[in-house]
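Because showing beats explaining, we let one protein speak, sequence and backbone structure tokens together, and leave readers to judge.
___
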Amino acid sequence: MVEAVDSVKIIILADDYAGYESNLIGQHGFSAFIEVSRGDIKKRILFDTGQYAAPVLFNSKKLGLDLTKIDYIVLSHRHYDHTGGLPRVLKHAGRRRVYVVAHPLLFKPNFVMKPYLRNVGVPFGRDDLEKYNVELVWAKKPMEIIEGVFVTGEVPRVTDFEKPIETYTFNEEGELVFDDLRDDISLVIDVKDYGPIVVTGCSHAGIVNIVKYAKKLTKYNRVKAIIGGLHLIDSSEDKIRKTISCLEEENVETIRAGHCTGFKAHHLFSQIFRGIYSIIYTGFTFSTQ
């Protein structure tokens, strides 16, 4: 059993939905401000940086969050709508040393073919980060970054219905080949007297796979809460229902989903997980305090 944190607060800074009667800004992308407390120690994590930094910085100011004090930035995967804001966020952080935790495939191109060929990977190069006080930390395998808080590294794909979306990359011969997005990682936070919380970016590894792996890593028999994107937006009703059935079997108590989850999935999840499921939005706050 990992050492648990005393409490956690998660505030969404970027999502496709800005919320009803909100003075915040939405964007196609995801970013979450996470503060964990353990005794007198507080650590701040920015999980993903959205497609653009400007809305993230605007929203953080409106919400009274100081991004110059973040300790870690965790990037869930290399897609532009999760990484695009990184350079400007680092510039905003100033001289503060920030650890950027990501999979080593972060800078590998990732292409979609429909409706036309385009690179949807990181919209900047590694050289663009050298001017900032940043240290890149590669997390191909599970890594505890704070006691009770760790990134999953690569998630084993064990279900037969959670196939990755159709994207491509270049192999060593320069050929365009299928890319199964092995760089998709999630954050797991073990909270004292509560249990493990899983924070996802897009769940390209499959949310059921992620939950199963989080249980294995934490040695708990359940995941208490899921917060983030489930990437079911283009999924069939059959796949969505299989996902719901498996999450019911996993006995997940709370699901707060947004970004790439999709209307059809929101509808079915809301019907079946009554009182358990809700849609997140910019400014949405989850706290165990």
Q: What stands out?
A: The chain has one domain: 7-287. The mean pLDDT is 97.
